[in-house]
């Protein structure tokens, strides 16, 4: 049966290039090109954009991004076995796919991209949150990218979009929502992937705000939210004790009851505390 882009079906690609999934590389592939096109569309209009994709693997999502009209796709893949399959896609879309072989955590990717940039990826689970935190923490804001459309384990996606006073609320929600609008745009069952992972997955759409929602220093916000949520059941006067003897007065000065717990406190109050601690 033909495919929407005339390239071979992904099962054939995987067989031809012997891409047996490796767990240590977080390889759970999407083989349904209708689904990968749908994920590409959830990133909004791609025409005129450079798209950065981390971990293209056999290229299902890459093909979706190209078919949906991305100006260029820059795809970074750690597994050398996938490179020949990706080169076949590059040949079918001349000048529109650049494949980089290496670790996304180590390469300087900005050098390969021209604005406007969107990042779209079915991330390897083992490095997903680390990449997200990096994309959220460039020294200057707004960043090079305008949106991130990222597949995570559903539980991680829920932590990114969580609101105060919920079980998933914590540091990841605060750091993401400080500089972005974040929402879940799609959830997928394990069977959508080959091999099927143990858990459900979800696509999160993060849109960069022109400026952080409330002023404060990113490093200080990171530090206090890490301390506050490492001991999330404790009162803040005790979980933040290491910040010095004046912490109780500082909490009171910004309107946070020292007896409150981290999950009761919203982003605005955490930013006020970060400014007060400086
Ligand atoms: N995008 C493909 C899809 O949707 O079918 C594959 C997604 S699979 C969940 C994750 C991919 O990321 C794999 O191809 C894996 O080899 C690659 N990968 C894992 N760690 C990586 C890293 N540090 N840098 C770049 N790619 C990585």
List the helices and strands and how they pair.
Layout: H1 10-16, E1 29-30, H2 33-41, E2 50-54, H3 60-67, E3 72-77, H4 83-92, E4 97-101, E5 117-122, H5 128-136, E6 145-153, H6 154-161, H7 171-179, E7 180-188, E8 193-194, E9 201-208, H8 218-230, H9 236-239, H10 247-253, H11 267-277
Parallel strand pairs: 2-3, 2-5, 3-4, 5-6
Antiparallel strand pairs: 1-8, 6-9, 7-9
Helix pairs in contact: 2-3, 8-11
The structure holds S-adenosylmethionine (SAM).
Domain Ribosomal RNA adenine methylase transferase N-terminal: 35-210
EC number: 2.1.1.182
Function: Specifically dimethylates two adjacent adenosines (A1518 and A1519) in the loop of a conserved hairpin near the 3'-end of 16S rRNA in the 30S particle. May play a critical role in biogenesis of 30S subunits.
Q: Major sheet: size, sense and barrel closure?
A: 7 strands, mixed
Separate helix tally: 11
- Counted up, domains total 2
SSE class: alpha/beta
CATH topology name of the largest domain, in short, is Rossmann fold
| Beta strand % | 15-25%
Q: Helical proportion?
A: 25-40%
Uncertain spans, ≥5 residues at pLDDT below 50? none
CATH superfamily of the largest domain: Vaccinia Virus protein VP39
What spatial order of strands do you see in the largest sheet?
Answer: 4-3-2-5-6-9-7
CATH architecture term of the largest domain: 3-Layer(aba) Sandwich
Ligand types: S-adenosylmethionine
Overall shape: it is elongated
Q: Note the gap between the termini.
A: 62 Å
């Amino acid at each position: 049966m033909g495919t929407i882009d005339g390239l071979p079906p992904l099962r054939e690609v995987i067989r031809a290039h012997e891409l047996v999934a490796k767990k240590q590389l977080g390889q759970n592939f999407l083989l349904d090109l209708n689904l990968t096109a749908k994920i590409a569309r959830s990133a909004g209009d791609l025409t005129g954009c450079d798209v950065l994709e981390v971990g293209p693997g056999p290229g299902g999502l890459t093909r979706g991004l190209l078919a949906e009209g991305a100006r260029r796709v820059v795809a970074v893949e750690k597994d050398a076995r996938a490179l020949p399959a990706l080169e076949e896609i590059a040949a079918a879309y001349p000048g529109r796919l650049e494949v980089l072989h290496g670790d996304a955590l180590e390469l300087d990717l900005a050098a390969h991209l021209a604005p406007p940039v969107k990042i779209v990826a079915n991330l390897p689970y083992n490095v997903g949150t680390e990449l997200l935190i990096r994309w959220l923490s460039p020294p200057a804001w707004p960043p090079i990218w305008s949106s991130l459309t990222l597949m995570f384990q559903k539980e991680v996606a829920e932590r990114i979009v969580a609101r105060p006073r919920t079980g998933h609320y914590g540091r990841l929600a605060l750091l993401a929502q400080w500089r972005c609008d974040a929402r879940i745009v799609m959830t997928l069952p394990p069977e959508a992937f080959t091999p099927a992972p143990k858990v459900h997955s979800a696509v999160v759409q993060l849109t960069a705000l022109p400026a952080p929602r409330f002023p404060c220093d990113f490093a200080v916000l990171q530090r206090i939210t890490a301390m506050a949520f490492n001991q999330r059941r404790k009162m803040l006067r005790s979980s933040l004790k290491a910040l010095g003897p004046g912490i109780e007065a500082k909490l009171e000065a910004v309107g946070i009851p020292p007896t409150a717990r981290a999950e009761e406190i919203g982003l605005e109050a955490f930013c006020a505390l970060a400014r007060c601690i400086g």
